[in-house]
Amino acid sequence: MSTEHANATDSEVPSGTTDASETVDSVGAGDASALDAESLVLGYPNAPAPVIDGESIAAEPGAVTALVGPNGSGKSTLLKGLATQLAPDDGSVLVDGRDVHAMDTKALARKLGLLSQESTSPNSITVDDLVYHGRYPHRGFFERTTDEDARAVEQAIELAGCGHLREREVGSLSGGQKQLAWIAMVLAQETDVLLLDEPTTFLDLHHQMEVMEIIETLRDESDVTVVVVLHDIEQAARLADRMVALKDGEIRARGAPEEIVTEDLLADVFRVDADVVQTENGPRVTPLRARHEDTE
Amino acid sequence: MSNSGSVAGGDAARRSSEGRIGWLFDPKLVSVALASVAVVVVAGLVQISFGAYSMTVGEAWRAVLDPAVLLDPRWLLNFFVGEGLMRSITGFQGELPELAHGTLIVWNIRLPRVFVAAIVGMNLGVSGAIFQAVTRNELASPFILGVSSGAGLMILLTLVVFGGLSAFLPLIAALGGAVAFLVVYAIAWKNGTSPVRLVLAGVIVGTVFSSLQTGLFFFADDIGVVQSAIQWTTGSLTGTDWEQVRLVLPWTIVAVLLSIAGSRQLNLLLLGEQTAKSLGMSIEKVRFALSGVAVLAAAASIAVAGIVSFVGLIVPHMVRNLVGSDYKRVIVGCLFVGPALMVGADVGARLGMSVITGADSQIPVGIVTGLVGGPYFLYLMRKQQNMGEL
């Protein structure tokens, strides 16, 4: 194998360029936010070696960045690190130049939202109540919901397309409907940066498309910076402005989808031989066979 | 995606008109509250009517509603805040007017016991509800994080070793519970806590402390001490008086207000740690503070009634089945269902033995709650497929 370390050269804007215009905290106003991680080292307390060892990643403001990679490549870990769910052993995560670990938790939650891969909730909570929980970081301890909250919830529910579900109990929903409800909750948070961990996994085709459409709307009509982990590389290519491919905790390639989704990269990162055909709907990947390096 | 707009408007209106207390008028919650009040009143009347000095229900009613007490703030203050405070509030120095014999018995002896039972029920219900949310486990009880074992050990130590301190037994017991809770928290802490670690640490501390507790029984040389220790560690309302009401009431008010104020945080905890954290909750602070409120409520109930089992486990359960999982409603529901269960169980504890055996003896109320609670859980276990995780 000669393709190892075929890291695409990093052509990104250096992360230092975000200037001091970040004081505007209000939702929807101002420019899109930047999310940068610098030489991030992430691991789990009981694991001997870190999963991610000194990687840097910058999410382009206002664009959709997709993280792809095989199982165990560290893409979800990286996302957790970006979302401060996992404290980094080293390195830092910056939102608009500010270190997220130094920020007040609520202030951070107004900037940066996360949709986890698996979310649990009591079965008898209504979709409406769930979405209202998204307003938590915007409310004080004793504050009741304001018109502003109601407006944000309306908008989130409309964007997520779950208006017909709002009186239903979450426990009675299908997996896809649940996911829409959770997405509405994260949208109601009105953050500048949105991190989504495999939002389409386990959903039927219809709901996969629903979720994709929501992200597309975010990309086209708002300034929200989205980082999304996706299992399906074709989906990722269709959806993302930029893609980052990981393998074994290392970033192997990053760039525009057409640069990333290539036969070489699929062989290197995903260990499959595949046909890649560029179509008007993005690249079409036809996996042919799994590669077994050790037999070569 | 098309019909979301029309539904949306109406809902926003509903939210804003609901306001701060609108959620209280949920029909399910109101009927739970009314039914519970009915149980408390009936059980209370039974408690008041029967005993060594028996009266008819009519006489009992008249004694409870005796205008000589109800319309005399001096008597009411005398009961609820104590004689000393009553005199300084009202400036009244003479003798209080005399009461009828029945009124005296009801107000002095029987009514305070009903009040204490109701207050203990509230405390245990709220405490259990909080612990179940904090540990995200339906099987958590107020005593899961070491509270009961800590209190039990201190009770035994006081009775067996430091007999001179037994006047302060309620406070020492409550303190022991609170200290054990801190020990549990310290053991569970490792870059933060998690529900599972907390429960495990609670089991560890519980095991060690109850071994020590059992060991101490061997050093008790007097059967009276042992009986008193058993009363405390199984929970009993025998001999409760206005003094106990006055001891427990202020803490109860504080704990109840704090838990209602914290209900939104509890709701968020139910969404799981990850979600709560990503919504900006400082999860460790909130969890510790809420646990503290729950320990306060549990300790208050221990101070007057000892360790009453099962109430804190069952009440939140019943309430959740009746009103749903929204913690604002759950907490308020517990304030009603807790007293209903506790006052009802105390009828059994006080009068059960004389009905069954004819003997004029009382059993600790904790035995009755255990006898009621066990089968209820058996029923739930059979009925529900998955119990445990909330």
From TrEMBL, chain B:
Membrane-spanning segments: 29-53, 114-131, 143-162, 168-187, 199-220, 248-267, 288-315, 330-351, 363-381
SUPFAM superfamilies linked to this entry: ABC transporter involved in vitamin B12 uptake, BtuC (SSF81345)
Matching Gene3D superfamilies: ABC transporter involved in vitamin B12 uptake, BtuC (1.10.3470.10)
| InterPro entries tied to this protein | ABC_BtuC-like, ABC_transptr_permease_BtuC
- Write the record's keywords in alphabetical order, separated by commas: Cell membrane, Membrane, Transmembrane, Transmembrane helix, Transport
Q: Does the keyword Membrane apply?
A: yes
Answer yes or no on keyword Ion transport. no
Its membrane topology is listed as: Multi-pass membrane protein
Where does it reside?
Cell membrane
List the GO molecular function terms. Answer: transmembrane transporter activity
The parts of the chain that form a coiled coil are: none
Q: Which GO terms describe its cellular component?
A: plasma membrane
Quaternary structure note? The complex is composed of two ATP-binding proteins (BtuD), two transmembrane proteins (BtuC) and a solute-binding protein (BtuF).
Q: Which family does it belong to?
A: Belongs to the binding-protein-dependent transport system permease family. FecCD subfamily.
Q: What does this protein do?
A: Required for corrinoid utilization. Probably part of the ABC transporter complex BtuCDF involved in cobalamin (vitamin B12) import. Probably involved in the translocation of the substrate across the membrane.
Q: What is this protein called?
A: Cobalamin import system permease protein BtuC
Q: Which organism is it from?
A: Halorubrum lacusprofundi (strain ATCC 49239 / DSM 5036 / JCM 8891 / ACAM 34)
Q: What high-level taxonomic lineage is stated for the organism? A: Archaea, Methanobacteriati, Methanobacteriota, Stenosarchaea group, Halobacteria
